[in-house]
Amino acid sequence: MSDREYLHLNRVKGDLIVLEGVKNAAYGEILNITLEDGKKRNGKIVAVQGDKVVAQVFQGTQGVSTNNVAVNFTGKPLEIPLSIDILGRQFNGLGQSVDGIGPIYSSKRYNVNGRPMNPVARSYPRDYLETGISAIDSLMTLIRGQKLPIFSGNGLPHNELAAQIVRQASVKGEESNFAIVFGAMGIKHDDADFFRQSFEGSGVIERVVMYVNLADDPAVERISTPRCALTAAEYLAYEEGMHVLVILTDITAYAEALRELSSAREEVPSRKGYPGYLYSDLATLYERAGMVLDKKGSVTLLPILTMPNDDITHPIPDLTGYITEGQIVLSRDLAKQNVYPPINVLPSLSRLMKDGIGDGFTREDHDEVSSQLFSSYSRVQEVRSLAQIIGEDDLSELDQKFMAFGKAFEERFLTQDQDEKRTIEETLDIAWEILSILPKEELERLSPKMIDKYYCGE
C-alpha cells in the first residue's frame, strides 16, 4: 500500500475521477477509494499524463464529490487469488466470489493482465477437442490450443450453443483432466440463470469456473472479466496440468465497453467510434490461448460475438478474423428453418483442422468426407438458385438428387437436439449416409478406397 493518501479530486466525470500532482502512478494500477461515510470502492488507472491520473471507479461515482473521498494507490495491478478450488465456483468480473461459499484462499495472487507468450515457446496444436456437435467436429474441427470464434447475431441461439458445448466438450483419454472456464460479459440476469441451471442440471458444474459480468454491472468490470477468466485458465493449464476450454460471450459487449471507456477518456475514435487500439486489445485476449512446450496443459479459446446488423465486415468480427484461426458462422436463414445449431458451413472454417484429423486422430476418412461435404453443399446452393428461376420440377435428375442431399444435410446432419452428443464416428457415419444420396461419380473428393469401404448407396 502506498503511504501517500490523496484527499482531493480535481474532477469527477461519469465513472471517471481525475487527480493531479500524483507521482509514480502506473497504468492499470488499482486504487482504494474511501468515502466520507467509511464505505469503500475500488478504481483502476486508465490514463497517466505526466502527474495527472485518470481512474475509473468500478462501483460508479454516485455520491462522490471532489472533496469527500480519500484515495490510496496500491502500487499493484488487478490480481486474483487462484487454486484448484476455483473449479465449480462462480465469480464476478473482478474475480470476487458471488456464490455465497466465500473467497478463494491462496498464498499466490495472479496479475489478470497475464504475460505475453513467447512464440518460440509455443507448441503446435494437433489433438482435437470433441464438442459432440456434428457440424463443428467434422467440418471445422476444434484443435486443442486453438482460438476459434463463433460469429453470431442478436436473437440467434449462441447462448444455447455455448451451454451445449460446455456440457458436452471432452478430450479423449483426458476426461478427468479437462476443465472449462466460462466468461460472460454484459449478459442479462435471465441468461446468467440459464447458464448456471444448465451446468448444474447436467452435472458438469464441478469442472466449470464461471466469471460473470451482468448487463447492469460497471463497464470497467466488463474489461477485466475476460482477463480474469483467461488468468484462471492459464493457472489450471500450466500449473495444474489440465486441458482448459475457455468460452467468452459476448466479445461485442466487451468491445462496446472499451468504446465507452475510450470516449470517456476523450480519445480520438477510429472505425465506427471504436478506439484505434481495438485490434491490439483483442489480440491481448486471443493470443493467450495455446500450448506451451514442456507443459502438459493447454488453453483452447472459443470466443462468441454477436455481429451488429449481422455485418461480418463490422470492426469486431473483422479484426477477430485476422487474429484467430478460423470462425464458426451462425445463419439467420437456417435458424428460421428451425435448424439447430444453425451453422452456416460454407463461410466457416478451422485453419488448424488439417493437422488434427485423420488416421490416429479422428478417423481415416475424415479429411476426404469433410472436403466432399463442403463441395457438395456448395453445389446445392447453385442448384437452389437455379430452382428459383426454372422451378424445382424442371431440374435434371442429378440436380434433384443434389436438392435431396441439401435437405438431408440440413435436417439430419446439421440438426441435432440440444442434449444430443454425437461421437466423431457417429457424425462421419451420418455424413456417409447423406453422401450416398449422390451417385458415386459425383463424389470426386473421395478416393475409390474410401468409397468402397463406406459408401452405402446403390
UniProtKB/TrEMBL annotation:
Residues 11-75 form the ATPase F1/V1/A1 complex alpha/beta subunit N-terminal domain. GO terms for biological process: proton motive force-driven plasma membrane ATP synthesis. PROSITE patterns: ATPASE_ALPHA_BETA. The keyword Cell inner membrane does not apply. GO terms for molecular function: ATP binding; proton-transporting ATP synthase activity, rotational mechanism; proton-transporting ATPase activity, rotational mechanism. Residues 355-455 form the ATP synthase A/B type C-terminal domain. Keywords: ATP synthesis, Hydrogen ion transport, Ion transport, Transport. It comes from the Bacteria. CDD domains: ATP-synt_V_A-type_beta_C, ATP-synt_V_A-type_beta_N, V_A-ATPase_B. Residues 132-350 form the ATPase F1/V1/A1 complex alpha/beta subunit nucleotide-binding domain. InterPro entries: ATP-synt_VA_C, ATPase_a/bsu_AS, ATPase_F1/V1/A1_a/bsu_N, ATPase_F1/V1/A1_a/bsu_nucl-bd, P-loop_NTPase, V-ATPase_su_B/beta. Belongs to the ATPase alpha/beta chains family. NCBIfam families: PRK04196.1 (NF003235). PANTHER family: V-TYPE PROTON ATPASE SUBUNIT B. Produces ATP from ADP in the presence of a proton gradient across the membrane. The V-type beta chain is a regulatory subunit. This is V-type ATP synthase beta chain. It comes from Filifactor alocis (strain ATCC 35896 / CCUG 47790 / D40 B5). The gene is atpB.
